[in-house]
Amino acid sequence: MLEEIAPRDARAEAQRVLGPHARVLEPSPPAVNAPPWFADDPTGGEPLDDSTQAGDPAWRRQRWLGPYARLEQLPPTFTATRLELHRLAEHTVSPARAAVNGKIGLRWTLGGFGTPFFGADEQLRVEHGRLIHQRGAHATRADIEAGVDELAASALGDYYGFATSVLEALRAAHADLDPSRVQLWPEHFDVSLELGGESEGRRAGYGASPGDEQHAQPYLYVVPWEEVPSGPRWQAQGFAGAELDYRELLEAEDQRALALGFFEGCLAELEA
Q1: By residue range, what is the domain housing residue 191?
Q2: CB under 8 A, 24+ apart: contacts of 258-265
């Protein structure tokens, strides 16, 4: 069943709440139909951390604009929901964008994930487990997908929001290391960016997976493109790289600081 809903413009919404210069982590219209990214870059690679921002802290917390929500224990339905939403991302959401501009990359969106705006200001996104199709001034919301638990879908969205906020902070701190954009890749359902000099053999992927065949729960990771250091940090399960599991994030007093420290520590070793 389809329900008509109001369309969203995350940037305009933030500017109404936080002021005319507010920036966000989510994609916003209008569509960018120019190479190489065919997508907007709302942060511009600049820091978003600003404790002086105006607006309701709860509103900002939902959108990972600081103050930041804490990641919590995952519901028992998380893995089943993740698998269903992964299929939806790979077979429905991403192909809608790719059919227009050949790009498969997705992004975090409020309550889940979705495409950047494409074509005629069109977007497909998943919000708390429901599929939303927005085009211009019109948007519809479909009933929740079979096999998808709304609580688990929301937890997945929170994890992607957390990861995006951390990775954008990492990107902003290392503009000199040729960072890529932060994207959510439908094949592995992970959020990541790349940093480091490729010609020097120091480039690596820095990302956040929601779990896979080797990992029952989410984890952060760093995967060097070339030689992997031999130290104790670089003993990931199932791939050549480093990892930080969800349990460690849950136990941390400051989860974002732990995540950033993990990425920065790996980066420092690779750049040494």
Answers
A1: 167-271
A2: 259/162, 259/163, 259/166, 259/220, 260/166, 260/169, 260/170, 262/220, 262/222, 263/166, 263/167, 263/170, 263/206, 263/220, 263/222, 264/170, 264/173, 265/233
